[in-house]
Amino acid sequence: MAQYTNSDATGRGQSRQRLVSLDAFRGFTVAAMIIVNTPASWNHVFPPLLHATWHGITPTDCVFPFFIFIVGIAITLSYDKLKATGASTKQVVWKTLKRASVIFLLGIFLGLFPEFNFSEIRVAGVLQRIALVFLACAFLFWYTNWKQQALIGAVVLVVYWMAMVCIPVPGVGMGLLEPGKNLAAWVDNMLMPGRMWQGTWDPEGLLSTLPAVATGISGMLIGRLIANPNVSREQKVAWMYLLGLSAFVLGSVWGWVFPINKNLWTSPYVLYTSGLASMVLASLFFVIEVLGVKKWATVGVIFGSNAIVAYVLGSIIPSVLAPLNNWYVMNVVEGRNWAELASLLWAVGVCFLCYIPIYLLYRKKIFVRI
């Protein structure tokens, strides 16, 4: 049975046998992040490439939780190796705190780039949420077993649901789940410093990070399945499909009473997206690991080998190309019948520009670890 060890929580690690399907999943997810974040014009975007306005879900709403799900899997595979090599708790705690801090500060840096206007600093953000989820999940993995992790994840989802619908919000009332008028927004206004993305609320706020931890736990549980040497590859595929479909259905049904909502990271949203992520990984695992058909996934593997570097480039390059982007929008996008396509092609171009240095790093076997 192959031994799977797949990187740290966000980058690439060392192993005797790479889990290529996870690398590919990570890479395709990061590439999708770049594309949906960098259209030429936000006024001209195909609807599936936009986030849902509020309740509901689009393909774009799946990208971020997919990445957090992958973070959870990577924690299991990499921290299992730390346990096997006899790493001390002190070493693990220091390593975890250091990595989470670097990712968090990198998110702050990208939020400030390029103006570096500290009066407009945003403490919340995508990398910041990844850092907090990684920190919580890494400690959970180290100090608890998989059954306790599953129980903690379930409790978090139920408690978050009860809190959001049952705790009265001053000036708002109880059970309201409208933009800026809900418990999560109230908590963010009370506790979170700095500017918020939507003025009075933030989609990566404090309270909604708790169910995001449950997304990470779902990945950790799938990682435990993948790492189990007593389960055949075919059985792993079947279990990933079964567990994923079960979570997807449960999330869909739960959404009848507690809406699926990315901005609030609601409990049904966690189950719905984790279920989809599990089934996507099962498909990749079957094709790549079981059937051995790998060449088609090379681009994903290359992106996944330096995922954080790719994400950072995807945040910096659009700012550098801002003057060219303005010209492109005025001369190629605006007033055209194919404006949405032109806007998408710009995003694909940005993604390709990110791919070039990532490919060079991959060729030279340079893997940036945080």
UniProtKB/TrEMBL annotation:
* The organism's place on the tree of life at top rank: Bacteria
Xref: InterPro entries:
HGSNAT_cat
Which positions fall inside the Heparan-alpha-glucosaminide N-acetyltransferase catalytic domain? 18-164
The record's GO molecular-function terms, alphabetically, read: acyltransferase activity
Membrane-crossing ranges are 24-42, 62-79, 100-118, 124-143, 150-171, 205-226, 238-257, 269-288, 300-321, 341-362
**Keyword field:** Acyltransferase, Membrane, Transferase, Transmembrane, Transmembrane helix
**Pfam families with a match to the protein in the record:** HGSNAT_cat
Family matches, as PANTHER family: LD22376P (PTHR31061)
What's the name of the protein? Predicted acyltransferase
